[in-house]
Design brief:
Its cofactor is Zn(2+). By secondary structure, the protein is an alpha/beta fold. Helix content is about 30%, strand content about 30%.
């Protein structure tokens, strides 16, 4: 019997390894771009190159307010996010070629936020595989992926490699 990992686990493990490069105080996120079984790029969340990151300069938090209407009832959703940090998915798109993204899969440690989902939806990828959920944006991101015909799936029961998950704030 073989202990060989399946491809999804293998590439998600690599995304978690990439996340260990992050210096974000709130969450370490990693992403990888795969074409077939070929790894084309890795990325993690962090401040732009050459400028102080959150561990050096502190988080640059903003609060966003979203109005959601469910069954004619308005609900205000408040979200805090750090604008000092470039998300892993954004860095992945910045550092890979459009030609490589066409028909590819992105493996990411965390479900993409709305902004990253929009960018990925327009990037040429045909599949996004993630581990940890992001409930604040899950519903609208899932709808976007259905509308775009992008396979969007969470790896249930996945266990990240030891030492790759940091105790950080959601």
């Amino acid at each position: 019997m073989s202990n060989r990992k399946d491809w999804d686990t293998y590439f998600l493990d690599i995304a978690y390894m990439a996340s260990t490069r992050s210096r974000c105080n709130r969450r370490h996120v990693g992403a990888v771009l795969v074409q077939g079984k070929k790894l084309l790029g890795t990325a993690y969340n962090g401040a732009p190159m050459g400028v102080p990151d959150c561990t050096e300069a502190g988080c640059m938090l903003v609060e966003e307010i979203e109005l959601k209407v469910v069954e004619n009832i308005e609900e205000v959703i408040r979200k805090q996010r750090c604008i000092r940090t470039i998300h892993a998915e954004q860095n992945l798109l910045l550092f890979t070629d459009r030609e490589d993204r066409e028909g590819s899969t992105v493996y990411v440690t965390d479900q993409p936020c709305w902004t990253c989902a929009n960018m990925l939806a327009n990037s040429g990828v045909i599949e996004i595989v993630f581990h940890r959920g992001y409930p604040k944006d899950h519903e609208k991101v899932s709808h976007l992926m259905v509308d775009r015909g992008i396979v969007f799936r969470r790896m249930e029961g996945y266990e990240p490699p030891p030492g790759t998950v940091s105790d950080v704030v959601n």
